[in-house]
Amino acid sequence: MLKKTILSLIFALSSPLAFAQCDDFTAVELRKLRSKDTVDLCQFKNKPLLIVNTASNCGFTGQFKDLEALHQKYKDQGLVVLGFPSDDFFQEENDEADTAKVCFVNYGVTFTMLATSPVRGSDANPVFKHLGEQVGSPKWNFYKYLVSADRKEIQRFGSRTKPLSAELSTAIEKQIR
């Protein structure tokens, strides 16, 4: 009996999420875009996050290309890019399959994309509810929120700030050091 308990404990502790418990706004599990699978954001504990509200039919939709380049450039240094499609500004596809096509097929996105959800107002998803309370809700699509690894610092960048801009790159590089 003791041996079985010890083996169960070892198995539980070997899970990648075993030590990923977090006590901040990332203590949430969200569904991936066009999937039944979910993502526990606690797995990104102690890593800086770049959180972006996206839309498939916006003048800024081309930023997906540069967000992917940013992801490729900094992922090995710990940066996690998270995309949150939203129809809050009436520029997202009605069907998640179409949203997924824009992201994954048209722009080759490999960073984590979550299911379409509200990003502002009283029905905002829990991540954007927190971001809105701390630094303000997005005023348009492709607002970028750079969150420090310890979750104590949040910087907000508007839609016009390009993902590969010197301003955003400098801020990211300060966070990954």
From TrEMBL:
The keyword Oxidoreductase applies. SUPFAM superfamilies: Thioredoxin-like (SSF52833). Pfam families: GSHPx. It comes from the Bacteria. Keywords: Oxidoreductase, Peroxidase, Signal. It comes from Pseudoalteromonas obscura. Transmembrane segments: none annotated. This is Glutathione peroxidase.
